[in-house]
Each structure stands twice: as structure tokens, then as C-alpha cells.
Design brief:
This protein is α/β, with parallel strands linked by helices. It has two domains: 195 residues, FAD/NAD(P)-binding domain, CATH 3.50.50; 198 residues, FAD/NAD(P)-binding domain. The protein contains 14 helices and 24 strands. Strands 7-6-5-2-1-8-20 form a seven-stranded mixed sheet. It has a five-stranded parallel sheet with strand order 10-17-11-12-13. Helix 9 links the parallel strand 11 and strand 12. Helix 1 runs parallel beside helix 11. It starts with 14 loop residues before the first strand and ends in a 10-residue tail after the last helix. The site of flavin-adenine dinucleotide has 33 residues, from helix 1, strand 2, strand 5, helix 9 and helix 11. This is NAD(P)/FAD-dependent oxidoreductase. Keywords: FAD, Flavoprotein, NAD, Oxidoreductase. GO terms for molecular function: oxidoreductase activity.
Length: 461
């Protein structure tokens, strides 16, 4: 989409709302905008353009269950074009934003193919929601051997990888190879790390019954956390319970410990221990998306966009933000200066207020403040295992796991997704769990290349 190619320059009769990001905030904001702006969209006085790299929104809280095989990858994502049928969805990435000129520079799949360079999209109102990326540290070997846990590709890749390691362990005669294959190191004890580890360990434990020579006690699962607690989201008491529960399952939880290096496929911890391993999963927090640095918009010292409680950018007009990328004041907190934490609970609710405020601004009506008191959290630790601390109530084991499922089923966008996920869970209750690895899907041309005289690609992870 070239500059003004849709006929819109700032100030002309059709107002263009540009939404950057198709995650929680992007999807929910655009959904609400297309609902609330129906008359304007029909008259053609408003258009909504959503720019995002993937044609789907990922429901991240379901990634651990996708890794465990309890939900198929297609059902943890929501197809944007179908859901946002009143919006223009552009599959691309914003590279920079010049808000003074109301212009975003965007690369799309087509610009890459054509080699023409980025295109410019002008706008009247900007909703900036590119979320966050993994916060990494300069740990030697991490970039070569580590994997994150933020995308559906990573979750499914990790599932395939774990099952593949069990296959390697089952077929090797070399004890060192077997030991490294059966050692899984997770760094970071927030919900992404704990849930991913809990679900994958549970899946691998189950899968081991189908291996004649791999037993659950042969596997080493290690959780490395720099602070003295895990799962801060569920509070101290339930965090301690989670540590005990994971240790009861023979998971080696190391608090106040850091990963120093994972060079040459050896995880070295700062307590002096060394673990040869082929699996290092990095979930040690997030940082705001780097595209924010390529804008002329106000950011705080941590790089998040400075917002008011109305979700407008501070000291700026016609620009809005929410979610992981935004520093939104938590006006319900006792301590002044507190920001809303980067989580789905806030992202979802902020998106609603943000969209309503954009509509109010377009119609010249007063704006509303965002206020939501954190309700607590639920986390799954594997099939029928969980932990929760919600509205002051603490739950563990099966009730917490059940609550986790009910809560997320109620939250996953669209009735279609809810129905599919529920159907999958119901079927999984009737049949045995899937333990197949489809890692070869990552190299679809391998078989043909071999037939055509090439060589099989070497496994890299
Ligand atoms: C494994 C996992 C489990 C989680 N579980 C929970 C949970 O149980 N409860 C909870 O409250 N929270 C949970 N979270 C956190 C929650 O998912 C995030 O807080 C939430 O997704 C933030 O929403 P967002 O819209 O800001 O970012 P995202 O949902 O990440 O969306 C950002 C979007 O912007 C797009 N984008 C990035 N760069 C660009 C660009 N340059 N141009 C255009 N688009 C771009 C991305 O592709 C993405 O679509 C979990 C996160 C993970 C990773």
C-alpha cells in the first residue's frame, strides 16, 4: 500500500485508523472498532487498517497446552481476515513511525518479493500494539542453542524436539548422547516457563510408557530462576506450593540461580553445575518491541510507550497504545506511579477502553480512564494439575487446573475457537494422548531433495 494510495491524506473526509499489531490488543481493538463504527464504515467516512506480520492472532496462554498436544496448533490462533471482515488486514511489519507526519513505514511480503523497499501508510489515528519480545541476556551460546516460548511455531517446534530427543535417547548406544538428549533446561520461572515445563514434562512422562528403554526417572527437567520464587502472578503461598509440586515430580527447581553459558551444548549454571543438554528454553521475561525505538513517540526508561490512563500517548494527540508495549498507569494501585503489568488480563481490558476512547475522540465525546484491579492468576502444570490465586481464593491440583481451562475457554476469542478447543478437550478425554512428533514438517522438501540427489538437512537444534 503506497503512501495515500487509498486516497487518504490527513484532513480528508475519510479517517484512517491504523492498528499496528494483530495480537491481543490489535485484534480486540479492531474488533470493537469495527463493531462500534458500523455506521461510519458503511458510509465510508472511516477505514480501519491492521498491519501485522502473521495472518492470525495467537492466544498465548494456550501455547503450553499446544506444546503438550492437548490443543492443535490451528486452534490456538484466530484468523484475522475472517474475524476482522470490516478491516483491511495488511500482512507486514511496521519498521518505523513518524507520528509528526502521521506516517508508518511498512514492509510486506510483497515488498520483499518485489525488492522495492518499504511502503508508507498514512493515518489519522494510530493504535500502536506490537507487544513484547523475549528479554535475553548476553549468555554465551544462547543465540545458537536457545529457543523462546512466545509463538505457536516455538511451542510446536519444542514439542517435536522433546519427542525427537526421546527417540534419540532410545536409539543411541552412547550414554553421553542419551544423557544430553534427556536433559531439558528451562530458564525463567514466570507463567510461560513454568507452564511450558509443567506441560512438556507431563507429556514426556506419559509418552515414555511407549518407549521400551526410556523411563520418567531417566529424564532430567531443570528450572532455573534468578529470584527466590517462581510464578509471582499467583502470590507467594501458591508460588511455594508450585515449587514443592514440581520437586515432587522430580523436577530440579533451582532458585536464586542463573544460566552462565550454554556454549557447546553444555548448560553452565552460576552454582557451578554443568548439564550437557540439547534443550535450553529461555522464558526469562519480556521487553517492549524494538520498533518502538524507531518512532517519535514518548517512551519511559524501560522503553515502553508512556500512556495516560485514557490509553492515549502522553503529551501526544491521535496516538494510542495498550498491552505489553505500553506503560499504562494502574490507577487502582495504592502506590502512585505503579504501571499495569504486561499480561493478557490487562491487554484484553485495555483494548476495549482504547477502542471506546478512539470512537469517543472521533465523535467528539469525553474519554474514559482505564481502571482494573488485578484479579490474580491461574496456571496449568500439566494434565489435571494446576495452581490458582483468583479474587483472594487459592486453589491447587485438579480444581485449579479445571478453573484454568474454564477461564481460558471463556477468554479465547470467537465462538468458533471456543467450540473447537472444547471439542478437542472432550475427544482427548475419550482417547489416549497424541505422542507423535511431526518435526519433519519443518523440512518439507527434505525427502524430495534426497530423491533429486541432494543431502538430508542436518538437525540443527
Ligand atoms: C506462553 C505464554 C503464556 C502466557 N500466559 C498468560 C496467562 O496465562 N495470563 C495472562 O494474563 N497473560 C499471559 N501471557 C501474556 C500475554 O499473552 C501477553 O501479555 C499479551 O499477549 C500482550 O498482548 P499484546 O497485544 O500487547 O501483545 P501480543 O499479543 O504479543 O501481540 C503483538 C502483536 O504485534 C505484532 N507485531 C510485532 N511487531 C510488529 C511490527 N513491527 N509491525 C506490526 N505488527 C507487529 C506481533 O506479531 C503480534 O501479533 C502469556 C504469554 C506467553 C508467551
Amino acid at each position: 500500500m503506497a503512501a495515500n494510495s487509498r486516497g487518504r491524506a490527513p484532513g480528508s473526509p475519510r479517517a484512517r485508523i491504523l492498528v499496528v499489531g494483530g495480537g491481543y490488543v490489535g485484534l480486540y481493538t479492531a474488533l470493537r472498532l469495527q463493531k462500534r463504527l458500523k455506521p461510519e464504515l458503511r458510509q465510508g467516512s472511516v477505514e480501519i487498517v491492521v498491519v501485522t506480520p502473521d495472518p492470525y492472532m495467537t492466544y498465548q496462554p494456550f501455547l503450553p497446552e499446544a506444546a503438550a498436544g492437548s490443543i492443535s496448533p490451528r486452534h490456538v490462533v484466530v484468523p484475522l481476515r475472517r474475524v476482522l471482515d470490516q478491516c483491511k488486514v495488511v500482512i507486514g511489519e511496521a519498521q518505523s513511525i513518524d507520528h509528526a507526519k502521521r506516517t508508518a513505514t511498512v514492509t510486506t511480503l510483497a515488498t520483499e518479493e518485489e525488492g522495492t523497499g518499504a511502503v508508507e501508510i498514512t493515518y489519522d489515528e494510530l493504535v500502536l500494539a506490537p507487544g513484547s519480545i523475549s528479554r535475553t541476556l548476553p549468555v554465551p551460546g544462547l543465540a545458537d542453542y536457545g529457543i523462546g516460548f512466545k509463538t505457536v511455531e516455538e511451542a510446536i517446534g519444542l514439542r517435536n524436539h522433546v519427542i525427537e530427543q526421546m527417540d534419540i535417547a532410545s536409539s543411541t548406544r552412547d550414554p553421553a548422547v542419551r544423557d544430553a538428549a534427556l536433559t531439558f533446561v528451562f530458564v525463567g520461572g514466570g507463567y510461560a516457563g513454568v507452564e511450558a515445563l509443567g506441560e512438556l514434562e507431563d507429556m514426556a512422562r506419559y509418552a515414555s510408557r511407549y518407549y521400551h528403554n526410556v523411563k520418567p526417572e531417566d529424564m532430567k527437567w531443570i528450572l532455573v530462576e534468578a529470584s527466590n520464587r517462581i510464578l509471582p502472578e499467583v502470590g507467594e503461598v501458591m508460588g511455594s506450593y508450585t515449587v514443592r509440586e514440581l520437586r515432587r515430580r522430580n523436577i530440579d527447581v533451582r532458585l536464586e540461580t542463573r544460566l552462565d553459558s550454554c556454549q557447546d551444548r553444555v548448560a553452565v549454571l552460576d552454582d557451578g553445575s554443568r548439564f550437557p543438554t540439547r534443550t535450553v528454553v529461555w522464558t526469562a521475561g519480556v521487553k517492549p518491541h524494538p520498533v518502538l525505538a524507531a518512532t517519535d513517540l514518548p517512551r519511559n526508561e524501560r522503553g515502553r510507550l508512556k500512556c495516560t490512563a485514557k490509553l492515549a500517548l502522553d503529551a501526544t494527540t491521535h496516538a494510542w497504545a495498550a498491552g505489553d508495549a505500553a506503560a499504562v498507569p494502574d490507577i487502582t494501585a495504592a502506590e502512585p506511579g505503579t504501571e499495569c503489568a504486561p499480561n493478557a488480563q490487562h491487554a484484553l481490558r485495555q483494548a476495549k477502553v482504547l477502542a471506546d476512547n478512539v470512537v469517543a475522540a472521533l465523535r467528539g465525546r469525553p474519554l474514559t480512564d482505564y481502571a482494573h484491579k488485578y484479579a490474580g492468576s491461574v496456571a496449568s502444570l500439566g494434565l489435571h494439575k494446576g495452581v490458582a490465586h483468583v479474587y483472594g481464593r487459592k486453589l491447587k491440583g485438579y480444581p485449579a487446573w479445571f478453573m484454568h481451562r474454564v477461564y481460558h475457554l471463556s477468554r479465547v476469542p470467537t465462538f468458533n475457537r471456543k467450540a473447537r478447543v472444547l471439542a478437542e478437550w472432550t475427544l482427548a478425554g475419550l482417547f489416549k494422548r497424541e505422542i507423535v512428533s511431526l518435526g519433519s514438517l519443518e523440512h518439507p522438501r527434505a525427502e524430495f531433495e534426497l530423491a533429486a540427489g541432494g543431502q538430508r538437512p542436518k538437525e540443527s537444534s
